[in-house]
Amino acid sequence: MKVIICGAGQVGHNIARSLVREENDITVIDQSEDLI
């Protein structure tokens, strides 16, 4: 599944990590380049 996560803070990071383990295609978007 392709998933876009808006926000790379603690919650977004944990959701992305969980979805990657399930072999999903993840894109994370955030205003702060430091968090990406």
From TrEMBL:
Q: InterPro entries, per this entry?
A: K_uptake_TrkA, NAD(P)-bd_dom_sf, RCK_N
The UniProt GO MF terms for this protein read: potassium ion transmembrane transporter activity
Q: Which PROSITE patterns match?
A: RCK_N (PS51201)
Q: Where is the RCK N-terminal domain?
A: 1-36
Listed Gene3D superfamilies: NAD(P)-binding Rossmann-like Domain (3.40.50.720)
Assigned keywords, A-Z: Ion transport, Potassium, Potassium transport, Transport
Q: Which GO terms describe its cellular component?
A: plasma membrane
Protein name as annotated: RCK N-terminal domain-containing protein
